Amino acid sequence: MFGNPIAHSKSPEIHAAYAAQTGQALRYEKRLAPLDGFAAAVHAFIAEGGKGANVTVPFKLEAVKVANALTIRAQAAGAVNTLHFTEDGIIGDNTDGAGLVADIVVNAGVAITGQRVLLLGAGGAARGVVLPILEHRPAQLVIANRTVATAVALAEQFAALGGEGVVSGCGFADIEGGFDIVINATSASLGAEVPPVSPSVFAPGALAFDMMYSKSPTVFLQFAAQHGARLRDGLGMLVEQAAEAFSVWRGVRPVTGEVLQQLRDQL
Predict the structure, then answer these.
(1) Catalytic residue annotation
(2) How confident is the model at residue 78 (pLDDT cuts 50, 70, 90)?
(3) Which of 29, 27, 28, 31 is nearest to 3 (CA)?
C-alpha cells in the first residue's frame, strides 16, 4: 500500500486476514512514498519482486500515469487505487466503486436497481463510484456539488451509460424530491460538517451512506438519522474494495463478513 500519510491504514490487517482465509502466501505492507517520488517507489517495489499494490491519497491520479494500461472502471474513475504488475506491464484498476456497491447491495441488503440515488460531491471519490452505480440500473442518479458546473460535467460524462434522463447534475440547493439512497462522497465529514442539503432528500426508509467512517456516526449520518434514514458508514466499502483488489491479484474473492465485524469491533 503506497500513500503519504500511510500509518493509519488498516489495509495490511485486512489483506492478512484474506490471505489466511484463502490459503494464499501473501505479504502486504505499508510504504510511505515521497510526495515527489511515487513512480520511483513503485518501480523499486517491482524490482524487489512486488506483484501488486494499492494506492491511496495523494497518489491515485499519479497511479494513472504509472500504469501501462487501465481497466474500464479505472478509465471511468480517472483514478487508480489498485496496481497489478503483469508480464504485459502495469495494469491500473479502481476497486472503490465496486466496494461501495458490494457493501450497499450485499452487506446492507439494499438494491440499487430501480431506485433514486443521490450522490453528494463530484470530486475523485464521487467519480470513482458513478460507473458501478449505473451498472445496477438505478431509476435516477443525481450528482450534486457545491460547484454546479463540476456536477453537470460529471453527469454529462456518464449520461449515455445511464440512459435517457437517468443521470443529472445540480447544485446542493437545486436538489428536488426524496431519494432511496443518499451517498456522501464529499470531504465534509472530515471537518465535522454536513453538506448543505435539505432534510427532504431522505425519502421514507432511505439509506444514508457516508464514505467516511469512525467509532461514532459522522455528522452527516447523525443528520440523516434525525430524518429517519438508515445509516451506513464507509468501513464496509473499505473492506469490500480490498476484497476486490485481492481478487484482481489472486483470482479468488475472499469472504468479507467476519473481517468487517473484526474491524468494527476495533473502532
Answers:
(1) 60
(2) very high
(3) 31
